[in-house]
Amino acid sequence: MTSSTQKIFLPDGTSYPIRKRELEDEVAAAQVTGVRSVWSDNITSGLTPVRLASILRDSARPGAETRDYLTLLEEIEERDAHYRAQLMTRKLAIRGLDPIVEATAEDGKPVQVADEIRDIVKSPHFRKALLDIADGIAKGYSVTEIIWNTKGRLWKPATFKWRDPRFFQYDRIAGAELRLRIDGDPDGAPLMPAKFIKFEPKLKSGIPIRGGIGRVVVWLYMLKAFTLQDWMQFLDVFGIPIRVGKYGPGASEADKRTLLRAVANLVADAAVTIPESMVLDILEAKATGTDAHQRAAEYWNEEISKVVVGQTMTADDGSSLAQAEVHDRVRLDILEADADEVAAAVQAGLVEPYCALNHGLMPEDCPQYTLPVPKPKDMAARMKVVREFVEMGGKVGMAAMRDEIGIEDPDDDEELLVPPRRSRSDQSQKPDGAPDDDEADDEDGGDEEGKDAKPARHAACPHCGGVHTHAAEDAPEAGDDVLAAMLKDWEPALDPLMKPVFEALQQSQSFEEFLARLGDMPQRPDLNPFADRLAVLTAIGRGIGDASR
Question: How far apart are CA 7 and CA 15, in angstroms?
Answer without folding.
Answer: 6
